[in-house]
Write a structure and sequence with these properties.
By secondary structure, the protein is mainly α. 80% of the residues lie in helices and 0% in strands. The chain contains two helices and no strands.
Length: 79
C-alpha cells in the first residue's frame, strides 16, 4: 500500500465518517419494528371488526332458521 500522508489522512477521515454514519443508525431497527407492530395491530383490529360483523349476521340467520325448524307450521320462517 502507498505510504503517502494524504492517503493515510483520507483513510482515517473515511473511517471516522463511516463510524458516524453507522452510529446514527442505532435506533432504526426499533423504529422499524414499532411501525410494523402498529400496522399489524391496525390490520388485526379491522379484521376483528369484519369477522365479528360476519359472525353476527350468520348467528342471526342461524337462529332464525333454527326457530323455523322448531315451529311446526310448514311455512318457511320470515327472517
Amino acid at each position: 500500500m502507498f505510504s503517502s500522508p494524504c492517503l493515510c489522512y483520507a483513510e482515517v477521515t473515511g473511517r471516522r465518517a463511516w463510524a458516524r454514519i453507522r452510529g446514527d443508525q442505532r435506533g432504526e431497527g426499533v423504529v422499524s419494528v414499532a411501525i410494523a407492530v402498529l400496522i399489524m395491530a391496525f390490520l388485526g383490529a379491522i379484521m376483528f371488526a369484519g369477522f365479528k360483523a360476519t359472525l353476527g349476521k350468520a348467528q342471526s340467520r342461524t337462529d332464525c332458521q333454527v326457530s323455523g325448524i322448531s315451529v311446526d307450521s310448514g311455512s318457511p320462517p320470515s327472517c
